Amino acid sequence: MNRMGRDFVSLKPRLSYAPPPLNGSMMTSLRLVLGDQLTRSLSALDGMDPAQDVVFMAEAAQETTYVPHHKQKIVLILSAMRHFAEELKSEGLRVHYVRLDDPANSGSFTGELARAIALHKPDRLIATEPGEWRVAQMMGEWSGQFGLPLEIREDDRFFCSRGRFARWADERKSYRMEFFYREMRRETGLLMQGDKPEGGEWNFDKENRKALPARLAPPKRQRFEPDAITREVMALVGERFAHHFGDLAPFGWAVTRADALEALDHFISACLPLYGDYQDAMKVGEPFLYHSIISPYLNCGLLTAREVCMAAERAFRTGHAPLNAVEGFIRQILGWREYVRGIYWRHMPDYADTNALDAHRPLPEFFWTGDTRMNCVSQVVGETRQNAYAHHIQRLMITGNFALLAGLEPRAVEEWYLAVYIDAFDWVELPNTHGMVLFADGGLLASKPYAASGAYINRMSDYCGGCAYDVKEKSGAKACPFNILYWHFLIENHARLAGNPRMAMPYRTLEKMSAERRAEITREALAFLEGGDKPQKAGQFALDL
Ligand code: FAD
Ligand code: SF4
After folding, report:
1. Is pTM beyond 0.90 here?
2. Ligand 2 binding pocket includes 480 (Cβ within 6 Å)
3. What parts of the chain have a pLDDT lower than 50?
4. Is the Cβ atom of 456 under 6 angstroms away from ligand 2?
């Protein structure tokens, strides 16, 4: 399904603000700040001369429509950009800011840069390396296009530079996150006692797989009331992106560094102690549980990975949070976040083109509507529409697991994840979806596919109790689709996966199944995939076998 953007009715246009050009003889630099670079210590802003230099920021239509981004995601980025520009101006810096609804806005970042260069006549451009391959390609053309030197500085908001990751990867045939993470722990000294890991272990994951007890109520999460700037952006998004996925309101995300820091404080004080225990749990009506919900702030630059990890470590050192929670949390950022970025930059652009499991089924409509009888999928899509957020296990083991088992086309699934989550940027979304969820990279990122039947979902959530399907049933009209699709996935991918040592156990079980049972699985799975999950009519179930 193509949900790419169109052109739209516009709100009453406003003027962007551009400082008057300078005519002095000193060197003038145009300092570029992208929508995911809203960090005051950004390398592109380093050594800025307030008297000569100009910061350039532009809201480009091109960036808002290449996938049908969730409305809250567009609001977050545009509002955070506008707040950041205001903060720079209040420091006395000169900011050339182009708004989306400026009638002169050409719609492309390059077009707006050309206009800014014509106005300010800078001697050079200074940028921080972009997060995405697509933007790096665009940036690569600017120097020649504008006849100006372009200095691209390292993005030192990450612990591990691209060069550092390449050196680590060069030394090995296959790379695994766990070993990368240990090196990062040693290098940063986070949760270390000399050269030994705190508590004698690198990883406390085995303590972090508890289901949520029925009586435990997770803390209420903070919301930030939209201010005048955010309300103005919401009105713009409501008109211009009405057809995009997701609910616009209520919008409660932080759009300034001060509020993002408050959200971090609240997570550390109220949620971190139980973060580890219930990291993998899922519960109807509890979209956030004990998760940090800071990924959008980290990814657009309102918070830095370093300060977040240090705040978590402090909570451990002061006895506020246990080691299993703090180690589990720091591993997500120092380990997974840095690792997926390393993989992305090392393997792009070819990384996105592989399809190791030869998966080609189209994305079902219910990924957008939530209209399915599978309660787990319906709950996760519903929460995603409402909040632009789902936690990791919901993304990996519900929608992701379904996409893997059903053999959905990687590109369509990747476009979906990129569109629907508020924290979604290509460099982090792509390896998670392409590698971790879909195994489309053939095992570069993960050593085996994260495939699971309904039993896993039942163990970690309360979804199954309210489902039209029966998680205990393995075949027939009421059988949980994950049970049927799981075995069908193993049958369909026998030639590709049976030799994987980590898949030995399920393949041994499959081999013990009779030929009739396998034929039954294939028949039921194909019936389901060909449209079996019909909305329920009284007394009738979806699979009509
Ligand atoms: P917490 O559980 O509180 O974790 C703390 C932080 O660790 C997160 O804020 C995030 O910065 C980092 N983190 C955790 N897991 C990962 C991971 N696997 N990869 C990278 N960083 C991680 N994360 C994104 O930031 N952007 C994405 O576009 C994105 N797409 C994903 C797509 C799929 C299919 C999957 C399975 C995961 C994806 N993730 C993505 C990773 C993860 O799901 C989110 O970072 C997390 O759910 C954000 O919620 P949180 O801040 O409450 O995380
Ligand atoms: Fe999901 Fe199956 Fe449980 Fe229904 S029974 S909620 S489809 S796992």
Report:
1. yes
2. yes
3. 1-15, 536-545
4. no
